[in-house]
Amino acid sequence: xxxxxxxxxxxxxxxxxxxxxxxxxxxxxxxxxxxxxxxxxxxxxxxxxxxxxxxxxxxxxxxxxxxxxxxxxxxxxxxxxxxxxxxxxxxxxxxxxxxxxxxxxxxxxxxxxxxxxxxxxxxxxxxxxxxxxxxxxxxxxxxxxxxxxxxxxxxxxxxxxxxxxxxxxxxxxxxxxxxxxxxxxxxxxxxxxxxxxxxxxxxxxxxxxxxxxxxxxxxxxxxxxxxxxxxxxxxxxxxxxxxxxxxxxxxxxxxxxxxxxxxxxxxxxxxxxxxxxxxxxxxxxxxxxxxxxxxxxxxxxxxxxxxxxxxxxxxxxxxxxxxxxxxxxxxxxxxxxxxxxxxxxxxxxxxxxxxxxxxxxxxxxxxxxxxxxxxxxxxxxxxxxxxxxxxxxxxxxxxxxxxxxxxxxxxxxxxxxxxxxxxxxxxxxxxxxxxxxxxxxxxxxxxxxxxxxxxxxxxxxxxxxxxxxxxxxxxxxxxxxxxxxxxxxxxxxxxxxxxxxxxxxxxxxxxxxxxxxxxxxxxxxxxxxxxxxxxxxxxxxxxxxxxxxxxxxxxxxxxxxxxxxxxxxxxxxxxxxxxxxxxxxxxxxxxxxxxxxxxxxxxxxxxxxxx
Length: 611
What we know:
By secondary structure, this protein is an alpha/beta fold.
């Protein structure tokens, strides 16, 4: 089914006499039947709003009178030649998976959530059960089927919730499926699995797919065309090959691009006069590096100075990044002072699910540690134990020498341990953005003048200054995530735990958040990052701990992890493209040094030019 948008303008109603700015400005767009059409762009560009207009939720759910409507909505939208109306969202022709899955759960059990849309369609019970089971299998959650009638969606992990939301729409087999960053909370294998599932359904049922996504690897692999949306206006529509060749425009708009594209832009090496988009193309584009570097001795990186609980070291060219520039001081401190110790720790949920099984972990003062693993592996559970939210069933957990078995110790933890939840809505409750950041500072007894300075600095750091007087409810999910980060980091805790801090963020916002964390690290703070972003791990983290099924399966440096294929497979992880390309070349040319990051690749290729 085709979608045609002609001259679309939209701005949200306000509660004041002053009109809000236009969120969408003159959108003209035609999406072909059966096409997978990607939409990307910076946070706040209007991507979610555009999807809601295609669904018909905008303007028809805004309760505008016929007299008010022209002041907020202009243009036309049609699906298969018929106008999109207020009835469109309740049909099975167009379905939309929201960015935050919790916002679309309506029933009390997984089974009823999967079958709700099918019940509305009036399908017989046997077909509802069959489709619900098939859709659950397609998103890799078949193991939940036997308890689906009793399992509440709220009891699932963040990634599982996202898959269930997708499955509930897949079961209805809509003609058009709108996906608003559907894989943002998923681990790398889960991302690929879900998108491949959608690609199969698209082929099997001639489904039209509109995919809003920040991940350039997913966009370039699965989309026929990609649109760049910036400040409510479409700047570019092109095939993936042509799209990522538009460096000037993409950089100006702050669009996210892949690591191979970045290497190509920064060095001038190309594949058929354009940036490479796959490892195969990258191997050809950057092949000259192999012969130039094969005879050169490998250098040791400052990453190697970080102690590991396995006692292993690693050899690879030294990264010229900010992380390695200041690690000598922090590594001396790391060797002397553990700040968190977890010993033989177990945790089970009320339904009997065992989340942690005898976990041992040490976090050293002044380091940046990444905690990795597939969805449901126990990462967030451990983080909540360290923040004093959960109490372990067994084992010993100490933070700054204090045993968390004591209720008094746990009550004092917020002053020294800052925890940013994976879902920002779990910790935002004030009615103004600036008040949200200031709340923790008030509890700490900070003077008003200092509070105002801290609030201003935190909002500037996460790009939310213009929203200081806004209600957090009116922010997008990515903006709310940045607000949660700002609220915690403004308090300057000694230990900062951030659970998926860059989920759904564009390139500039990722840089902003990581810059904020790096500033705290340079002040001697200790950072624990839970993430599925392997590029972030390679560029910013000194050590890595990986979980699988509630158990620790690896501890070491990023370089060690991304060269250890067995551990990567065991933990369901994939190396970032720069490291994956390097590992690929080393299989064919063992003398080639291992390059972990974009910057290391750029340095190596630039050195080749200077020969």
